[in-house]
């Protein structure tokens, strides 16, 4: 027997209690005036404008200028760089590969992240903080060291291949490094913590009593997940997917180190053009396209998240 | 005995070449030298900079990086004080820098050792000379080759042996050795330098383990046996061989493409005189001899010829005789750089994806 349980996301007593308290404190301190807010934000905004916005504007201007020599942008304005980029299927292919990488990493991360996220959200063990720390720990290591650590594991004579060959699962060592597979492994390892944290926070907000009620009505663990946890953690899932996706499509170091110069994605292509080819107009064009893609996905996801509320 | 004799000659030559001894001087100047980093910078520091500072009081600061990075920084600083006073780069970078009007011609009065250099290494228009001679070839694991029944390589095309599939590493086009390898393979398959497509297509057929972006990657994988062969410059290859690994280095019979290390004074430097004195110190016989023992690249000071001849165990590691130099093909680097965009693009389309 199956029942559809429709619940308001904010239905749990704990959540309503928190919000009432929040509203009370907000009312007592009062809203700060617009001018005070502006003045308080001004220093940070000025720094951001100089350090962040201005370089992007300069880079954007490079993408609109012709190539005139090494490490420089020529005079005059032109849309030729964008025309060349979008007019050639080869570059569309690079964009497609980049987005494909993002999608694959997101899919794998989401599947891997749910069990630990659920466990961490529900556990009352006193080791919980330590376990959360262990989840975040890959992020504490420098990205270069983290990727270097994969070499003895994934290499042709590495640990993984030794085990696989030893167990007879394959007659030839698997190519897990210096290719797209290696990049996926490296990125999933680095970005799953974001997904786990995002899901964990979302699952914590789901009242335990909802799941207990479902169990009482006869739902098994998979049904509980499908009917309660998954729908109610959608905002966390979306946020996690957004973070993992945007970080994957703009990833450079992991792609460069795990891809072995065989994987050409937007970030590594931009690096090749700017640092080796010293071709600033083309490099800037690639960077602006990547920026636009990232902005597009971020804004769409944020829109979806807001509608969900 | 021969080495002691050789060292004694070196010392005498240096004293003679330096002219009247000068007392320890003081100076406020710090020269900034662009270099490649790692053991190379250490070797230049030990053999050139330290002695130079002791003698003249001028301090030397090394700024390490890749050649394209150095070039980009110098180009970006055009019209203002450049970030370096001296640049130790390679011929390809030097030609680009000259084309952009970034380097200073040397005054032979300030750089007297220029007259002692081997034929053909001085720059025709008076810019910096070739500083160290580099040969590029194949370094291979002789043991693994023997076990697999592969004959030792004598030709560049031996890399395409199917038994070596997945076991060789060649430089990525963006790495310093990349263009040289491409131009050489292009020569072997009968292409001409203005159109490198034949070379790129040939390289696309090669089943590599990886395209390295740093020789460090090759140096890590050769000892473990994951790599059996790689295209490397002679200095790095011999550094590995001298560690006792079962490796051998050979320059294949078709020859190699030259991209020697060059030393230049950057235009617009605040210290042109001091910079040229440093260049002179780098070209002195004693400095060059010491450098060749630390990083086995070929010295360009011909006063060292009798010493090198007396120590064949050492001098076999690098090119130094006129015959060897004649065999190294010097491409037109300026035109390679001019066509770099197309070459990179073709490499991306045929090899990278």
TrEMBL record, chain A:
Residue ranges of the region described as Disordered? 1-30
- UniProt keyword annotation of Cytoplasm present: no
Q: Which Gene3D superfamilies match?
A: MetI-like
Q: Where in the cell is it found?
A: Cell membrane
All copies of domain ABC transmembrane type-1, residue ranges: 95-301
Q: Name one GO biological process term.
A: transmembrane transport
Output the InterPro entries linked to this UniProt entry. MetI-like (IPR000515), MetI-like_sf (IPR035906)
Gene Ontology CC, one term: plasma membrane
Q: What is the protein named?
A: ABC transporter permease
Tell me what organism the protein belongs to: Bosea caraganae
Give the classification, highest ranks. Answer: Bacteria, Pseudomonadati, Pseudomonadota, Alphaproteobacteria, Hyphomicrobiales
Automatic annotation (TrEMBL), chain B:
GO CC annotation, single: outer membrane-bounded periplasmic space
Taken from the record, one Pfam family name reads SBP_bac_8
The signal peptide annotation in the UniProt record is: 1-23
Name its GO BP terms in alphabetical order. polyamine transport; thiamine transport
Q: Tell me which InterPro entries the record gives.
A: SBP, Sperm_putr-bd
Q: Name one GO molecular function term.
A: thiamine pyrophosphate binding
Swiss-Prot/TrEMBL keywords:
Periplasm, Signal
Identify this protein by name: ABC transporter substrate-binding protein
What is the originating organism of this protein?
Bosea caraganae
